[in-house]
Write the structure tokens for this entry.
Amino acid sequence: MCIRDRGQAAHCSGTGAATDTDGCTSTALPIGTAVEVTGASKPGTLAYSSWNTMQANDETDANACAYNDLALVRIAPEDVGSVNPSVPGFGGPTSVGATGGFGSAVYSWGNSSLRNGITKLSPKQGIVLQNEGDGWSHNVLTVTPGIPGDSGSGFLNDKGQAFGVLSTLQFAPAAGSNGVGDLAKELEYMRTHASGLAGVSLVPGTEALTPNLVGAILGS
């Protein structure tokens, strides 16, 4: 189960088992597949998948295959005006940025249906535990943790910059941690290897970052 709005994790369109996580070998739905978008009047369309692109380009970089997990959904024209890129509760992003080292602050918002509509469990604040995969992935620990259905959630650093996309649930280096794909690397890969997408860029949020978990919970 995955978030399906504007951006999402590429594995959300995977067609194999939950254990099929290698983007260079796992099967996935084709570009052009209709995608349900929460709150939209019409389905969106799968416009990009890092998995499809890596397979089409015979990618051999093991880190890219393991961690490049980004997809984009084209919103129907009728719904574009109702889309706001701001992260609920926290605001941002201001731009694409980098995560820091151990202990750096991170912020996110999850929308898994497993929370049964309890949005006060959606805001997340936490820290970076480690960076891995030659910078392709970041392990983070947040309160509350990302759960199935949160895949594709954007992550912000302490400056309000978008640095990653929730990809995996982790048991190491800490139980309840999450693996977050590096957004800068994922976007650069897309611009370099996907036809017609060289000019795609992040749309900043309309609200400034408010790094306050309690405020985000009370406002949700």
